């Protein structure tokens, strides 16, 4: 593990008494790819702006290499930013946009301001153009570039200064899916090659999982969980994280003993332990962790209420005792059919109850939407018979 | 017309044809004819006499434009960086004088600048005139006492006499004319510059800071070049009315600062009645103004490119 580079301790950001960030504690290691992930308005950009120096936290400390930098202005930080809307200079061409930072005299070791030689600037700009695959575009006006090209200019303009840290605020937001995927790989490649710490903001959970070493899940100005993509996906800390990262069925359960959780009055084997006996918990079951079996062999039995073809798999909504689950399967079970399911112990994840309990993980609304479309005849009578 | 709505433009186009194009045509006809409507270029030959008026017009208009720019840019910049409430109030204050009739405003300046006007009375009352006179006497005496020592023949030395003033010469000077123009046209400089600066994307300024520019650098490398279009249109909007102004120069210039506008007016309304010469002068002025504008716009583009390269 590399050493810590940036630390936020108890950072609070309030705008006119409205608390936007609530006691953020975050440690960013040197050369890591860290992603801030969360829904719109959760405070991602604000966190980034605090690191970049565009905002001073109302309280709390920002440390860089162990030095408190709360009051250091942006132009004195060895941090560069790729802005949410690129913010390329419209009066400058591609070359001059990238050279912008290099043309500003920097204080050297003795504190004297020195200007880079023109050849050095040219060499570094050209090198950067090569890195972002924009050779031959130097003389273009930035307004004549596509979204993806503008975005790469913005990245080059930041990286050419060889910052310790690059902050990227939803840099791929405006791109189409294909270009997004290409740029994700590209960014990852650049980050590895240049050995720069990336702090990346997105509200796209797939992007976060695919690119990051560390994911920070945020909601409502608070950090919900920090961990590797695998941790975040497999071991979500609460219902919010489970719901935000991937699809989840979240069911009320009771922890009967270590490794035994009860849902719908049936006991399931699981791998979780450390809860009080008979503690009420939230249970996460991922749609892909459910095996469909003939009805009589199932641990739970239910009725398929909707089927959606998704290419790789079918998304089916199954009604278990009035609670609707999303299950992903490659075998088609037609609407109205009765099925049974089995869940392996490692497909069950138990979480402590939180303020988010009961808010997520039920696919009722989802299913109704589809019912109307698929015109499934849903018979509640059938359900009653099953209960007996 | 492809767009149905463009029919609404017909009245305006008709109006323009009637009130702009036709008068210009009439002007062209007058400019190239004699009083008997015989084709001639004589009107242009006659104009040489007025070369000094041409020069003065352009000089004073240039100075007024420059002063407007020097005052207007900082004011616009400062306004654009204040809160929206402040901006509204400041905008209202800047527009306020425009609600008053132009002539009225200029007459007001006359009564301020006159020999026994408000300003001179103020100077008198607070003793500035007395102070000036004492200083004048002192310096004259000093100069005389020094000069007499170096004089070849002290007996024949004639000391300079200081004549005390009872007012400053304000009205009738080029300065008064420039002041009148600046006062009247300053809003036309502030408005376009302000509206460009206030619309600048704040993320551009943050990007410049992010890349290492300090406040001065952000201004020089981002704000200034991006506000150039506003400056150009401000300069145009001040220079064109300034160079062709007539009432201001007549009222504040006290007849001594005749400008092109006055000259033309005289040919149509004044004693020197000669509409053909008036039309010719108007033509020349128009051509010069158009050339200036074209050059300016070229310069503007060039500037943008120069920044780019
Ligand atoms: N300058 C400001 N003044 C007042 N409120 C602000 C300011 N900046 C941000 N906020 C508020 O702070 C909250 C978080 O904003 P922030 O921009 O950090 O969200 P975000 O996570 O980046 O959202 P998005 O994904 O939409 O960009 C929002 O509710 C926003 O309205
Ligand atoms: Mg944001």
Task: Describe it.
- The complex is a heterodimer of chains A (388) and B (309).
- Chain A is an alpha+beta fold.
- Chain A folds into two domains: 4-232, Rossmann fold (3-Layer(aba) Sandwich); 249-374, Nucleic acid-binding proteins (OB fold (Dihydrolipoamide Acetyltransferase, E2P), Beta Barrel), CATH 2.40.50.
- Helices cover 25% and strands 34% of the residues of chain A.
- Chain A contains ten helices and 22 strands.
- Chain A has a six-stranded mixed β-sheet with strand order 6-9-10-3-11-12, with helices on both faces. A five-stranded antiparallel β-sheet of chain A has the order 15-14-13-16-22.
- The longest helix of chain A has 18 residues, at 177-194.
- The termini of chain A are far apart.
- With 309 residues, chain B is mostly helical.
- Chain B folds into two domains: 51-114 and 170-302, MetI-like (MetI-like fold, Orthogonal Bundle), CATH 1.10.3720.10; 122-168, no CATH class.
- In chain B, 73% of the residues lie in helices and 0% in strands.
- In chain B, helix 9 packs across helix 10.
- The longest helix of chain B has 34 residues, at 275-308.
- The two termini of chain B are 42 Å apart.
- The interface between A and B is medium-sized, with 27 and 21 residues.
- The complex binds adenosine-5'-triphosphate and magnesium ion.
Q: What about the largest sheet of chain B?
A: none
Give the CATH class of the largest domain in chain B. Mainly Alpha
Mean pLDDT over the residues of chain A: 85
Supply Rg of chain B. 26 Å
- Principal-axes geometry of chain B comes out as globular
By CATH, the topology of the largest domain in chain B is MetI-like fold
Query: Could you describe the largest sheet of chain A, including whether it forms a barrel?
Result: 6 strands, mixed
Which percent band covers the strand fraction of chain A?
A: 25-35%
CATH superfamily of the largest domain in chain A: P-loop containing nucleotide triphosphate hydrolases
Taking Cα atoms only, what radius of gyration of chain A do you get, to the nearest Å? 25 Å
Distance between the termini of chain A: 57 Å
Number of domains of chain A: 2
Uncertain runs of chain B are 304-309
CATH architecture assignment of the largest domain in chain B: Orthogonal Bundle
At the fold tier of CATH, the topology name of the largest domain in chain A is Rossmann fold
Structural class of chain A: alpha+beta
**Count of the domains of chain B:** 2
């Amino acid at each position: 593990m590399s050493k810590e580079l940036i630390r936020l301790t108890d950072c609070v950001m309030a705008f006119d008494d409205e608390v936007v960030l609530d006691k953020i504690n975050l440690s960013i290691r040197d050369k890591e790819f860290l992603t801030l992930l969360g829904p719109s308005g959760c405070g991602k950009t604000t966190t980034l702006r605090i690191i970049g120096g565009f905002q001073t936290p109302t309280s709390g400390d920002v440390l860089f290499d162990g030095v408190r930098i709360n009051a250091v202005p942006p132009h004195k930080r060895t941090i560069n930013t790729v802005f949410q809307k690129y913010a390329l200079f419209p009066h400058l061409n591609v070359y001059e946009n990238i050279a912008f930072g290099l043309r500003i005299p920097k204080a050297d070791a003795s504190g004297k301001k020195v200007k880079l030689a023109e050849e050095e600037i040219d060499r570094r700009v050209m090198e950067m153009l090569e890195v972002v695959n924009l050779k031959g575009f130097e003389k273009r006006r930035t307004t004549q570039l596509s979204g993806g090209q503008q975005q790469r200019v913005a990245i080059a303009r930041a990286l050419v200064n060889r910052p310790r840290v690059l902050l990227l605020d939803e840099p791929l937001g405006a791109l189409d899916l294909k270009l997004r995927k290409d740029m994700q790989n590209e960014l990852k490649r650049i980050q590895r090659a240049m050995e720069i710490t990336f702090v990346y903001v997105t509200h796209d959970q797939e992007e976060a999982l695919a690119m990051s070493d560390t994911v920070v899940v945020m909601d409502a100005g608070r950090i919900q969980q920090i961990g590797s993509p695998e941790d975040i996906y497999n071991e979500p800390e609460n219902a919010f994280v489970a719901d935000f990262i991937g699809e989840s069925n979240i069911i009320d359960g009771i922890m009967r003993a270590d490794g035994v959780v009860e849902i719908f009055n049936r006991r399931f084997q699981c791998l979780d332990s450390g809860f009080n006996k008979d503690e009420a918990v939230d249970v996460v079951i991922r749609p892909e962790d459910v095996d469909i079996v003939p009805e009589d062999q199932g641990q739970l039995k239910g009725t398929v209420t909707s089927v959606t073809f998704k290419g790789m798999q079918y998304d089916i909504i199954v009604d278990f005792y009035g609670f609707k689950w999303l299950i992903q399967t490659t075998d088609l079970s037609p609407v109205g059919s009765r099925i049974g399911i089995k869940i392996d112990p490692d497909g069950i994840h138990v979480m402590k109850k939180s303020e988010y309990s009961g808010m997520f993980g039920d696919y009722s609304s989802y299913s109704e939407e589809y019912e109307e479309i698929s015109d499934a005849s849903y018979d509640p009578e059938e359900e009653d018979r099953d209960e007996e | 017309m492809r767009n149905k709505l463009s029919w609404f433009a017909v009245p305006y186009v008709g109006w323009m044809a009637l009130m702009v194009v036709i008068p210009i045509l009439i002007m062209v006809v007058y400019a190239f004819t004699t009083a008997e409507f015989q084709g001639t270029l004589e009107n242009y030959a006659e104009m040489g006499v007025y070369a000094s008026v041409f020069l003065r017009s352009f000089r004073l208009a240039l100075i007024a434009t420059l002063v407007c720019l020097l005052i207007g840019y900082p004011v616009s910049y400062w306004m654009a960086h204040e809160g929206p409430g402040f901006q509204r109030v400041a905008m209202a204050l800047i527009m306020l004088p425009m609600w008053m009739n132009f002539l009225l405003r200029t007459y007001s300046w006359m009564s301020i600048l006159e020999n026994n006007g408000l300003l001179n009375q103020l100077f008198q009352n607070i003793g500035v005139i007395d102070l000036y006179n004492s200083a004048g006497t002192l310096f004259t005496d000093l100069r005389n006492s020094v000069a007499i020592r170096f004089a070849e023949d002290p007996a024949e030395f004639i000391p300079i006499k200081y004549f005390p003033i009872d007012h400053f010469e304000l009205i009738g000077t080029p300065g008064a004319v420039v002041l009148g123009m600046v006062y009247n046209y300053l809003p036309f400089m502030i408005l376009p510059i302000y509206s460009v600066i206030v619309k600048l994307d704040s993320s551009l300024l943050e990007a410049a800071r992010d890349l290492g520019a300090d406040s001065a650098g952000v201004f020089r490398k981002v704000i200034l070049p991006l506000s150039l279009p506003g400056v150009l249109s401000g300069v145009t909007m001040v220079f064109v009315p300034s160079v062709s102004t007539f009432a201001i120069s007549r009222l504040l210039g006290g007849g001594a600062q005749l400008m092109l506008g006055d000259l033309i007016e005289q040919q149509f309304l004044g004693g020197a009645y000669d509409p053909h010469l008036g039309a010719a002068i108007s033509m020349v002025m128009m051509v010069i103004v158009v050339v200036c504008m074209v050059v300016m716009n070229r310069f503007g583009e060039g500037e943008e490119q120069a920044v780019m390269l």
